[in-house]
C-alpha cells in the first residue's frame, strides 16, 4: 500500500499485489571447545596399564540454528612429525561420530605406534582436533592439542628398569623448541627430586617435579606453560635439577 498526503487536506492511495520467493540459506554449526585432555597431556604405556586403561577425548556440544540437522563430529589425530625429515603426516585415528567424546584404549595406541619408520626420535607426540559438519557445511576447529606418549619398545623390558651409576642432567630436546621440549635425567639412588624452570631474571616459572623418586632414567616434557597454565614468551630459560647430593642447571631456548 502506498499513500500520499497533501498537508492533511487530501490523501491518495494505491495498492498492488506481488509475490516473492524466499531461498533458505544453510547455517554452519558452531565450533566445539575441548574439555579433556588438556594441552601437553602426558601418558605412559606400560605393562600395568596396557590392558585396562583408556584415553578419552571430550569436547562441547555444537549447535546449529537449522533445527533438524544431524551434526557429525570429525575427530582427527595424527603423529606430529614437525621435527622429522622427509616423513609425511601420519594419521592415527579419524572417525566420524555423533557423540561429543571419543575413547581409545592403550592397546590401540600401542598398535598405532610406528616402530618400523620411527616418525619420532624418542617420544611420540600426537596432535588432535575436532571439526563438525551438518552434512552441508563444515566448521573447522582453529585449536590443535597435543599429547605426549611415553612407551617401552619392548613392554617386557618395562619391569627391568635401567639403573644409572651416576647423576646426570641431559640437554633438552629439541632445543630450540616450540612449544614442547623433553628433559631427561639419571638418578643412581632414590631421593627427593626437584626440577624447576626459571626465566632470565631468575624467577621461577614452573616446578615440573617435586617428589620422591626411585633410581632410574627419567624423561619429562615441558609445554612452555607456567604454573598458571599460561604460555610463556619466547626467550632463554633455565632448568635446574636438585637432589640432596646433586645440583645442575642447563639453559634452553623457546622460539615462537
Q: How is this structure best described in words?
A:
The protein is 3% helix and 43% strand. It contains one helix and 19 strands. The strands form five sheets. Strands 4, 6, 7, 8, 10, 11 and 12 form a seven-stranded mixed sheet that branches. A four-stranded antiparallel sheet has the order 16-15-18-19, with no helix packed on it. The chain has a three-stranded antiparallel sheet with strand order 3-5-9. The longest helix has 7 residues, at 106-112.
Query: What is the N-to-C order of secondary-structure elements (H for helix, E for strand)?
Result: EEEEEEEEEHEEEEEEEEEE
Quote the beta fraction.
35-45%
Distance between the termini: 64 Å
The level-1 CATH class of the largest domain:
Mainly Beta
Please count the beta strands (DSSP E, at least 2 residues each).
Answer: 19
The CATH superfamily of the largest domain is identified as: Immunoglobulins
* CATH architectural grouping of the largest domain: Sandwich
| Largest sheet descriptor | 7 strands, mixed
Note poorly predicted spans. 156-161
Q: How many alpha or pi helices?
A: 1
Mean pLDDT: 85
CATH fold-level topology of the largest domain: Immunoglobulin-like
- Fraction in helix: under 10%
Class of secondary structure makeup: mainly beta
Give the overall form. Answer: elongated
Count of discrete structural domains: 2
Rg, please?
Answer: 28 Å
Amino acid at each position: 500500500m502506498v499513500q500520499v498526503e497533501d498537508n492533511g487536506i487530501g490523501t491518495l492511495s494505491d495498492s498492488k499485489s506481488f509475490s516473492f520467493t524466499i531461498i533458505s540459506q544453510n547455517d554452519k554449526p558452531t565450533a566445539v571447545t575441548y574439555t579433556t585432555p588438556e594441552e601437553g597431556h602426558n601418558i605412559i604405556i606400560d605393562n600395568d596399564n596396557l590392558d585396562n586403561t583408556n584415553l578419552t577425548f571430550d569436547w562441547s556440544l555444537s549447535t546449529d540454528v537449522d533445527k533438524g540437522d544431524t551434526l557429525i563430529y570429525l575427530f582427527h589425530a595424527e603423529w606430529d612429525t614437525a621435527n622429522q625429515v622427509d616423513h609425511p603426516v601420519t594419521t592415527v585415528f579419524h572417525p566420524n561420530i555423533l557423540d561429543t567424546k571419543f575413547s581409545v584404549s592403550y592397546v590401540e595406541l600401542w598398535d598405532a605406534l610406528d616402530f618400523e619408520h620411527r616418525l619420532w626420535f624418542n617420544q611420540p607426540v600426537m596432535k588432535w582436533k575436532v571439526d563438525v559438519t551438518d552434512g552441508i557445511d563444515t566448521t573447522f576447529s582453529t585449536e590443535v592439542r597435543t599429547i605426549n606418549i611415553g612407551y617401552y619398545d619392548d613392554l617386557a623390558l618395562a619391569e627391568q628398569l635401567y639403573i644409572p651409576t651416576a647423576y646426570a642432567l641431559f640437554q633438552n630436546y629439541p632445543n630450540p623448541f616450540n612449544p614442547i621440549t623433553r628433559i631427561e635425567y639419571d638418578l643412581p639412588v632414590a631421593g627427593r627430586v626437584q626440577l624447576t624452570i626459571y626465566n632470565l631474571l631468575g624467577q621461577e616459572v614452573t616446578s615440573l617435579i617435586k617428589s620422591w623418586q626411585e633410581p632410574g632414567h627419567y624423561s619429562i616434557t615441558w609445554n612452555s606453560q607456567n604454573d598458571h597454565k599460561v604460555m610463556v614468551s619466547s626467550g632463554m630459560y633455565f632448568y635446574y635439577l636438585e637432589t640432596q647430593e646433586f645440583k645442575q642447571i642447563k639453559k634452553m631456548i623457546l622460539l615462537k
